[in-house]
From TrEMBL:
PANTHER family: INNER MEMBRANE PROTEIN YGAZ (PTHR34979). This is 4-azaleucine resistance transporter AzlC. Belongs to the AzlC family. It is found in: Cell membrane. It comes from the Bacteria. GO terms for biological process: L-valine transmembrane transport. The chain crosses the membrane at residues 16-36, 48-68, 74-96, 133-153, 165-185, 192-208, 214-233. It is a multi-pass membrane protein. GO terms for cellular component: plasma membrane. It comes from Tepidamorphus gemmatus.
């Protein structure tokens, strides 16, 4: 490998690590809580680590533990996880054109490691420059190891962290994503997509049981962006003539 290329990859990886540090901090109390809840459900530390390592989807893991029983309702767990993670279809469709230059093996690894935070940070990066695989790894690998490690520690410690809200940690994810949304701002069309997504998700959350609001909000935002972005861009172009 040429020295210049090695330096470039190291820089991209370092930028990714720096970008994901706040997310790594934000997930700690929730990872500890997940591990503690899994311990209460009878899962061993290796089982918790294996679950986090293979699934790597906090929301799905929390739902799975919430409905966990002996014997485990595998079908219900699988359907619930599929429903919650349906948002990954939208995230994948959004990010796919921006990682089309990844090799096949790299693409599969990138998609396995894709989480909400990884997607959001890489989307923001794509607005500044092409996403390098090294940058994706810099974002995803620390977050992955952080999640797996802290959930395992939570299982080892037992029910120490039972209420993140008591420490104010429940707002950590909200604050982080609000900051990321600011970085994703690309003009009025962005605001329309955000507003449509938020309004739809809130309405579905209040009227429909289950995590359907996640997919509904994502679909509404995508449709609003697809519908209004061309019109806004055309209006801006005409105004500039």
């Amino acid at each position: 490998m040429q020295p210049d290329r090695r330096t470039h990859l190291q820089t991209e990886f370092r930028d990714g690590v720096i970008a994901v540090v706040p997310a790594c901090v934000a997930v700690v109390p929730f990872a500890l809580l997940l591990g503690a809840l899994a311990h209460q459900k009878g899962l061993s530390v290796p089982e918790v680590v294996l679950m986090s390592g293979l699934v790597f989807a906090g929301a799905s893991q929390f739902v799975a533990l919430d409905i966990w029983a002996d014997p485990a309702p595998w079908l219900m767990v699988a359907v619930s996880a599929l429903m919650i993670n349906s948002r990954h279809l939208l995230m994948g469709a959004s990010i796919a054109p921006k990682i089309a230059h990844f090799r096949s093996g790299a693409s599969y690894l990138a998609l396995f490691l894709m989480a909400d935070e990884v997607w959001a940070l890489c989307e923001r990066r794509s607005g500044e420059r092409p996403i390098a695989f090294a940058y994706w790894l810099g974002v995803a690998v620390p977050l992955y190891l952080n999640w797996v490690g802290w959930t395992g520690l939570g299982a080892a410690l037992g029910a120490v962290f039972t209420d993140p809200a008591a420490f104010g940690f429940d707002f950590a994810f909200t604050a982080m994503f609000l900051t990321i949304i600011v970085g994703l701002w690309r003009g009025p069309s962005t605001g329309i997509a955000i507003a449509a997504s938020a309004a739809t998700a809130s309405l579905v959350y209040l009227t429909v049981d289950g995590p359907w609001y996640i997919a509904a909000g994502g679909i509404a935002g995508a449709l609003a962006g697809a519908l209004f972005s061309p019109r806004i861009a055309m209006a801006a172009a005409e105004a500039g003539e």
